[in-house]
Write a sequence for this structure.
């Protein structure tokens, strides 16, 4: 287990380093400059701003300084477009929102997708299987920006309890998380079905059947744990993806999450913000992958002992 | 299939030798039995005909997707045009078809690039193997760890000015039609950005196929006969990889349609006067409560297309690669 943690941590460090390096230079290759959005600046004002944020130095020095600030002080720097705001403040304000939304939709997705996948596998090649797989396909094909407006119109409008959009009441989390959960549920259903079919054809399941173990018990005691392994592998990256990449849903329901900062950061040449978010994403991805690694070890005795 | 007919023959005491079916004929028989996949295939063909044959014919006969008519906004179905008009009095039916042209064009062009890059890169990595092959795959793994849409947005922003310069050059110095060039130039950065990071999974699939093929006896035999690497790659390895490549390409098209729509939806994809399904859905969502058709028509077309391509791709996988058909 220590070996898994160690290798995952090293891998995360390498990935984060490459990611930040790549994005550091890529984001500076975007035409335009971070201060261009304001009314025509005098050249000296522009130069003063660049000096203030250290953008007048050679790019290699800037790169070196970026790492130095992060590693020695944990400082992500200031946002260039939102004057006077620290990148760490922006992340710490928007991350809890995204985390709440992401966790809830992941739980909903698991509650919906895993039973659907099990059902499909148990009734392999019968109408229940086809129905479940068509539903799963719908979850993939009817995407958030189609589903969101449908929910706004059909649920939020008639039921005055829910707001169409916004983030002022606790209930406001319901519609965006339902919208987000279907995609997750769809992939989970397909993965669970595949895993379950794999397991159900194993010899030990046949043995269990032969000695008269009831079907329900075969599933819960023998089949479920190994069958869920592909789904658990998927959950790690899905978690990181859903937290950072839900800008479409955030946009539809006006959720003040992290996604919009990614997009705004790139379009307004806010180098520090984009880099900070990407760095944060990389670490989050590493943690999520580590958690799913550990869950796999917990689930599979073979992995535990090796 | 071959098995059952063989047993039937034995039961019927037919002595005639069974004619072997090729991989492709066999796959076609399996595909034909899969009703959802066949339906998906038919819908794909219909949508392609509608967008790339019927729409240009209608456009040539005078139906214009961009002509505004502010006195006839939001007319209902059948009043003006086939499906009514949108918020600026434009023919909704024509707009959805022309939007579909752009969506499909971007996805298909990007998929072609993906196949080209993926086959060359994965083929080399798999056939050569060793340290070079491993290093090449580590690079792919590293790129796959990046947040896809964010990187695509970044990449698109970077290459847009270069494409604009190129378009200007084509118009000014080569005298190309500026309207066509500019409209096309708007699609290119997005297409390149999607393909530039979308080929990674294809590269992986091709690599594993090439690696397992290059260890097989017939390749060994070709090698011992002294056939050049290039000939082995093109005559023996590539044709045998066609199955997985076709399957994956079919499944790549809908995911690229989705990426294009997502980017256009948040305003970082297709720009006016071009429009695509993502853009139309985004515009339509503004009139959700008063005029649902403006949202519903592109949304239905878009979802239907994704369904059709995905069912076709899944069916092709079941047909061409029965071993992998469990998930």
């Amino acid at each position: 287990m220590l070996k898994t943690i160690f290798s995952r941590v090293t891998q995360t460090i390498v990935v984060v380093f490459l990611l930040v390096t790549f994005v550091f230079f890529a984001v500076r290759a975007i035409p335009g400059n971070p201060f261009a959005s304001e009314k025509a600046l005098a050249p000296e004002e522009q130069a003063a701003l660049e000096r203030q944020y250290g953008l007048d130095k050679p790019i290699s020095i800037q790169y070196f300084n970026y790492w130095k600030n992060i590693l020695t002080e944990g400082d992500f720097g200031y946002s260039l477009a939102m004057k006077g705001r620290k990148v760490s403040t922006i992340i710490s304000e928007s991350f809890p929102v995204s985390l709440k939304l992401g966790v809830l939709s992941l739980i909903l997705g698991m509650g919906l997708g895993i039973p659907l996948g099990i059902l499909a596998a148990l009734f392999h090649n019968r109408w229940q299987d086809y129905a479940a797989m068509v539903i799963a396909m719908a979850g993939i094909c009817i995407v958030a920006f189609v589903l969101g407006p449908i929910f706004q119109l059909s649920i939020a409008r008639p039921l005055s309890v829910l707001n169409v959009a916004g983030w002022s009441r606790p209930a406001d989390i319901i519609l965006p998380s339902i919208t987000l959960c279907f995609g997750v549920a769809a992939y989970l259903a397909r993965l669970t079905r595949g895993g379950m079919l794999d397991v159900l054809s194993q010899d030990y399941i046949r043995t269990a059947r032969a000695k008269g173990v009831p079907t329900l018990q075969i599933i819960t005691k023998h089949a479920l744990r190994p069958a869920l392994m592909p789904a658990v592998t998927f959950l790690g990256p899905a978690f990181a993806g859903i937290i950072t990449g839900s800008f479409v849903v955030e946009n539809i329901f006006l959720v003040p999450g992290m996604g919009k900062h990614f997009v705004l950061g790139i379009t307004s040449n806010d180098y520090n913000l984009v880099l900070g978010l990407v760095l944060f994403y990389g670490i989050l991805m590493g943690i999520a992958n580590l958690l799913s690694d550990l869950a796999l070890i917990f689930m599979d005795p073979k992995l535990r002992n090796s | 299939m071959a098995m059952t007919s063989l047993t039937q023959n034995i039961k019927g005491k037919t002595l005639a030798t069974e004619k072997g079916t090729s991989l492709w004929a066999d796959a076609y028989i399996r595909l034909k039995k899969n009703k959802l996949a066949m339906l998906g295939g038919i819908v794909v063909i219909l949508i392609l005909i509608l967008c790339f044959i019927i729409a240009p014919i209608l456009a040539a006969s005078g139906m214009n997707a961009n002509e505004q008519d502010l006195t006839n906004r939001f007319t209902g179905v059948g009043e003006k045009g086939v499906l009514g008009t949108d918020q600026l009095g434009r023919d909704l039916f024509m707009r959805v078809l022309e939007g579909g042209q752009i969506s499909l064009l971007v996805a298909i062009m990007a998929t072609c690039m993906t196949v080209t890059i993926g086959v060359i890169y994965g083929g080399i990595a798999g056939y050569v193997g060793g340290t070079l092959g491993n290093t090449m795959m580590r690079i792919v793994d590293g790129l796959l760890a990046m947040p896809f849409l964010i990187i695509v947005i970044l990449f698109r922003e970077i290459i847009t000015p270069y494409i604009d310069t190129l378009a200007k050059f084509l118009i000014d110095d080569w005298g190309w039609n500026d309207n066509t060039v500019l409209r096309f130039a708007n699609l290119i950065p997005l297409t390149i950005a999607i393909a530039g990071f979308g080929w990674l999974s294809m590269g992986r699939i091709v690599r594993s196929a090439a690696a397992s093929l290059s260890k097989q006896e017939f390749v060994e035999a070709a090698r011992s006969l002294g056939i050049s690497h290039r000939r082995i790659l093109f005559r023996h390895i590539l044709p045998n990889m066609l199955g997985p490549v076709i399957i994956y390409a079919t499944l790549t098209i809908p995911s690229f349609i989705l990426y294009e729509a997502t980017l256009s939806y948040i305003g970082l994809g297709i720009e006016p006067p071009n429009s695509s399904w993502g853009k139309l859905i985004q515009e339509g969502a503004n009139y959700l409560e008063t005029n649902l058709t403006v949202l519903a028509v592109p949304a239905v077309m878009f979802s239907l297309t994704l369904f059709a391509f995905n069912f076709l791709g899944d069916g092709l996988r079941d047909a061409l690669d029965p071993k992998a058909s469990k998930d």
Summary: Chain A touches chain B through 50 residues (CB under 8 Å). The longest helix of chain A spans residues 87-122. DSSP finds 14 helices and no strands in chain A.
